[in-house]
Amino acid sequence: MNTIEQTTDEILQLASQHFKVPLAELKPDDDFFTKLGINSLQALDLLTRIEQHFRIELPDYELQGVTDFRTLAERIQSRL
Amino acid sequence: MLDLRQYTCLGEALRAGIERWPDELCLIEADRERENARFTYRQFQEAALPLARALQDAGFRQGSRAAIIMTNQSKWLISAYAVFYSGGVLVPLDYKLSPREQLALLAHSKAEVLITEHHIWRTIVQAPDFGSLRASTVLVTEAPPKAELAGAQRWEEFRGASEPAFVPRKRQDPACIVYSSGTTGRPKGCVLTHENYLEQCAAVTPLFPFWPGARYLSIIPTNHAIDFMGGFIMPFTGGGTVVHLRTLRPEFIRDAFTRYQITYMAVVPLILKSLQRGLEDRFAGLPPLKRRVLNTLIGINRALTRRRTRLRLSRILLRDVHKAFGGGLRALLVGGAFTEPALIDFFHGLGIPIYNGYGTTEACTAIAVNDLQPFVPDTVGKPVRGMEIRILNAHSESIGEVTVRSKTVMSHYLDDPELTAETIVDGWLMTGDLGQLDARGHLRLFGRAKNMIVTEEGKNVYPEEIEAAFEGLPVKEICAFAANYIWHAHKMTGEQLVLVIHPETGKRVTEELVAEIAARNRRLLNYKRVSGYLAWNDDFPRTASMKIKRADLAAQIREKCGRETMVQL
Predict the structure, then answer these.
(1) Does B270 contact A41 at a Cβ distance shorter than 8 Å?
(2) What is the ipTM of this complex?
């Protein structure tokens, strides 16, 4: 199973690919709304991409109130 | 549909609908491609009455207040009906607020009962001010078997055995307390009466009638006036069906149109844009010849629907496009003031009936709706039945503050007579919006007279809330504005927030200060963030009680600085 660090790294990679932002610019504590310049629907898009990658299902509410990659990774880790 | 004049309260009208159409489909709850539940009106009643009984057994009585914090789902409506059946007052709260904000509004509303979902309850329990919660009964839905409930009870097990008493209310009694703002700072709890809702429902139903078989897709949070009306009161008094979708992901929303043959749906601009993008992607993938045919058909459709919508004709001309929306769609409802006219026009070109309208919580949803006779994308339509609109203090081009009078205007703001007196003057509700009525009676909006802004995601943001987040900065004073309030843009879309900073005497805005502003800005929910700041070196004009005179300050800034002086963060 992935460690939380691996999960975080994989999420950063997915975000970087999906929204075409250089990976080097993304840090775990970054606010993904600001850093990626996305709105709430685009964040759900990212969530769908993450689900496909990790082969899990995350309800929308798991993203409620989450704004940084690290917390997002923790939510995913708990379902792996 | 039912003749609502014969009922004195929502509980009575809802019960009449349930008894009139017992075997019709009332609710469908879907999650992604799965279906969680279906209820006929009889089954809905059977689910709600034991809850009403248990509430009554727990001491809930006439006038008691119950708050609901839930996502869009069947238990929202079942719980609300149990509350109305018991003569209670409903306090629908936004599940997207932070736990701190939810606790503040729960305290303000003095709700004795809280009905919520387990994942929401989990975050409320962890909030530092959890101790402030005074609700004596907390019910949580869908809690996992071994979950720690922190004093709450399971909604599914909270059932009384005997028949509950039906507790009627008078038309003037409060039905709901709906917060139009006020998460930090001054809560604005609109007290809406049974009469407000019954009158609103009667006024809007002729435009959007429900019948057994008509289906409303509910994705806008049900605490919002529009979903509460369109996704609860209207279908229930017409025998229609409410479809709850427990995800907001565009791919599932698109799928729901065809899967459930949707008739009506209310959307925020963001969702509308995503539907547009989905269609545009499909159009772009067409071979060149098909693309040309499509463009020609859109042109023909536009020409034939210039004077009025002709839904049947559009469905034939643009069959494939309409099929993607299920084929039975009668209306997409959208807050017109905050939606780009070009976006509305895109759907109109395809013959998808899109009704842009305008409303406020204080007026119990709709004030004006475009009746599409003909389609006018840049107005918010004509006043709905029973609604009088007056433009107050009109200056250039007859633009002034929109004030309205109707039986749907709220009773008052909860526990705030001062704000109520400022907002309802001689029976007229001051909306705080600048507007103009054209010769055909269509209302056109031009911006805010007050400084609340509405974001693309359909959220209200008040500058006072933003200021609270920047309190304690090493500056003399700060004030947040909607940029279009300072520099009139003659539109209500694409709004930005700006923070006006008055540095300490003799000091400048330093890099450290900007870094601190940026850091605090990031901590705000994304839709509440300021886009930039503006340094201002004069004292802010203030009232005797030291409140900032926002209009005066905005006027001073407008006179001295252009929009370009705003430094982007």
Answers:
(1) yes
(2) 0.85
